[in-house]
Design goal:
9 helices; 232 residues; globular; 0% strand; mainly alpha
């Protein structure tokens, strides 16, 4: 009876994770449609603010869903952030190393991933929106979406880490579906490596703000490298 109940709970948790991803995609599509005229406006500030409004609405929805987790975790993180960062930075570095090596190998024959090309184009067209999204909104939303739902489902941390990493990597490959380049599926390795390292951090700290911090640091470094590369 106990095993059956555990299996049913796992299926429910999987369903919740799936529904959260569907909710994220659905909200993005609906809001982009509603804000379409403003997004396509020739007014630079209006188009940037419209994209930001979409991101903030989605973020607000997920903060509401996870409000019972976010608030106490933030209080805990303020008190123990030095410990959390010191104990877990090595896992982010491991993920970063695997990501860089695998990304270099795959890009040598598959080209730049569509996700990266799309981000660079958006950054050039909507720099205000993209900077805020990359450094702040994105890390919070993505960590809430891919890290929190499954952690308590599996007693085996390795299974949780792999699944969370694969979900994280898959979300970054959505734009690749439009490219019709099957080789881009391989980019789930570098994105998934980063996702697994972040999942490991969450499994250790059990504090979502630890993940958000490392995610934001990673994005800051990536954004800096993109901007420096554009200037050279």
């Amino acid at each position: 009876m106990g095993d059956k109940m555990n299996m049913e709970q796992k299926l429910i948790d999987f369903l919740k994770q799936f529904l959260l991803i569907i909710l994220y995609i659905f909200l993005s599509l609906i809001l982009e449609t509603l804000f379409y005229k403003n997004i396509m406006s020739s007014n630079f500030l209006l188009s940037n603010l419209s994209f930001l409004a979409i991101e903030l609405i989605i973020l607000t929805v997920f903060i509401f869903i996870y409000r019972r987790k976010i608030v106490p975790d933030f209080t805990d993180f303020k008190k123990n952030y030095k410990t959390y960062l010191k104990e877990n930075y090595k896992y982010w570095l491991y993920g970063l190393l695997v990501m860089l090596i695998s990304n270099a190998i795959i890009s040598s024959f598959a080209g730049m991933p569509s996700n990266e090309e799309a981000n660079r184009e958006l950054l050039s067209r909507y720099p205000i929106y993209m900077t805020i999204s990359i450094l702040l909104i994105g890390p919070i939303t993505e960590e809430l979406l891919t890290r929190a739902p499954l952690k308590d489902t599996f007693k085996n941390k390795n299974i949780y880490i792999i699944l969370s990493g694969l979900i994280f990597g898959s979300l970054h490959l959505i734009s690749s579906l439009e490219s019709h380049n099957l080789l881009e599926i391989l980019y789930i390795i570098p994105y998934g490596a980063l996702g697994c390292s972040l999942a490991k951090i969450y499994a250790n700290s059990n504090n979502i703000w630890t993940n958000i911090s490392f995610h934001a640091i990673h994005n800051f470094i990536s954004l800096t490298l993109i901007l420096v590369g554009a200037l050279l």
